Amino acid sequence: MDAVLDQFFNLQIMIDAWPIIWRGLLMTLLLCVIVIPLGLVGGLAVALLGTVRSKPVRWAVIGFVDLFRAVPPLVLLIFVYAGLPFAGLQLSPLAAVSIAFLLNNSAYYGEIYRAGIESIGAGQAEAARSTGLNAFQTMAYVVLPQAIRNVLPDLVSNTVEIVKLTSLASVVALPELLYSADMARSVTYNTSPIVMAAGIYLLMLWPVVRLLSRLEHRMGH
């Protein structure tokens, strides 16, 4: 038992590793601040483009969504970071992660927004147009607020997944939380920094998961 505690819950190693873990946590938070808004805005753009009447545009949106939902995020990240330099585009790890996550998250958020928009009856849009609102105003003031409210639990759930996906940035040597914890593990030959990082993820995401449960409960009633 003592050996297990020493290997996984060594308090002194956790204290010694805290500075590098803290820097990794800050990088993870920076990633979240960048990729979550990008995904939300990109997904909204995808959903709105999917509502236009032009068939080529709609087919392009379908192709975009299917492609980036089908390609694993890790494969996409490696392609952006290691593949684009062969085309003459050299990206920093942070830029590569941001672009890869933008493409992936826009596809998922776009489908969530689309479901929300389709949940609003056409009669509401027609009623709004009859009051003198144009198509943009109808979408912005009538359809979207109701659509987002209808799919809010799904939006929050997808955002939780994005926070967890930031750990993939470790494969391109971006010093986020998991990468920093693994560096500390490789120096100390002890798993306690990884356990510490897992605890930090839990502390960050557990309140959001509880909020999601409350939202789903309220939406169900």
Automatic annotation (TrEMBL):
Species of the source: Kaustia mangrovi
Entry GO MF terms: transmembrane transporter activity
Domain ABC transmembrane type-1: 25-213
Organismal lineage: Bacteria, Pseudomonadati, Pseudomonadota, Alphaproteobacteria, Hyphomicrobiales
Main location: membrane
Family: Belongs to the binding-protein-dependent transport system permease family. HisMQ subfamily.
InterPro entries: AA_ABC_transptr_permease_3TM, ArtM/GltK/GlnP/TcyL/YhdX-like, MetI-like, MetI-like_sf
Pfam families documented for this protein: BPD_transp_1
Source organism, top-level taxon: Bacteria
A GO CC term attached to the entry: ATP-binding cassette (ABC) transporter complex
Role according to the record: Part of the binding-protein-dependent transport system for glutamine; probably responsible for the translocation of the substrate across the membrane.
Listed name of the protein: Amino acid ABC transporter permease
Residues in coiled coil: none
Chain ranges passing through the membrane: 20-49, 61-84, 194-212
